[in-house]
């Protein structure tokens, strides 16, 4: 019998500006944003997917990854992974609608 080791979840750390950006986004999307971040970044934040890709060059504040989600991928989350301590740092969401 082979036992698979459980992956340790990453701690998610949000930039203080995230709250301010969320205020600019309609409340009906807050649950979607929170759930998507938890599901997509908790265990494998550095696994490339259709909507999660490494940035070609680091963005402001050292973000190295981008996660697109929501209706028509209207939200974009920039983040960086700090391996040595198992943390994933997120910066404010951006929106195609000019919010955030």
The total count of strands amounts to 6
- List SSEs in N-to-C order: EHHEEEEE
What general form does the structure show?
globular
Tally of helical segments? 2
Low-confidence region ranges:
none
Average pLDDT confidence is 84
Terminal Cα span: 50 Å
Percentage of residues assigned to helices: 10-25%
Radius of gyration: 14 Å
Amount of beta strand: 25-35%
Strand-pairing-aware structural class: alpha+beta
Largest sheet: 6 strands, mixed
Describe what this molecule looks like in 3D.
The protein is built from two helices and six strands, in the order βααβββββ. With 100 residues, it is α+β, with helices and mostly antiparallel strands.
How would you concisely characterize the structure shown here?
This protein is an alpha+beta fold and 100 residues long.
List keywords for this structure.
single chain; 100 residues; alpha+beta
Give the SSE layout.
Layout: E1 11-14, H1 17-23, H2 30-41, E2 52-54, E3 65-69, E4 75-82, E5 87-90, E6 94-95
Parallel strand pairs: 1-5
Antiparallel strand pairs: 2-3, 3-4, 4-5, 4-6
